[in-house]
Amino acid sequence: MNNLSDRQCGNVMVIFTSSWRYLASASLLAFICQFILYIYSFDNWVYLFVNSIIFIISHYYIFRLWFDNQLFQVLYQQDDCSHFDFALQYLFPKKQMITNMHQRWDGTKKLFNYALSLVVIHWVWLIVSMIMMRM
Q: CA 58 → CA 25, 63, 85, 103, 106, distances in Å?
């Protein structure tokens, strides 16, 4: 039986969402490298601008992943999720109420995929910027 409410499953999710640190470091490193390239040649501000936009969007998703990490730690310490759901509904009244753990896991997996994809795009944009600056 697939019971995602079990504490062992919770430990897996907490470890999974702890990867926000690596994603944040990789994104920050790509931004710093792009900034150094901009300092090296001031005429390519467009590359830095696009990189900054990608950086901001990726860190939004990384922040949400960090937030889920904190929420899953709290959620798996309790046996009853109703108080947790009530508090989230009070904080975010316009959001749809999540009814089961499977939906929470799917949402977090989606956030992780967005964050990972944006970090990869960030690095690809840095490589493209370096290639275009050499031309």
A: 11, 9, 27, 22, 19
Burial class (CB in 10 A: 0-12, 13-18, 19+), 108: buried
Percent of the chain clearing pLDDT 70 (strictly above)? 96
State the pLDDT confidence band at 42, using cuts at 50, 70 and 90.
low
Are 17 and 48 in contact by the 8 Å Cβ rule? The answer is no
- Is the Cβ–Cβ distance between 44 and 37 less than 8 Å? yes
Q: Confirm if 81 and 75 have CB atoms less than 8 A apart.
A: yes
CA distance 100 to 133: 50
Q: Which one-letter amino acid corresponds to residue 105?
A: W
Q: List, for residues 76-95, the tens digit of each pLDDT value.
A: 887 777 777 788 788 888 87
Three-state SS for 89-131 is HHHCCCCCCCCCHHHHHHHHHHHHHHHHHHHHHHHHHHHHHHH
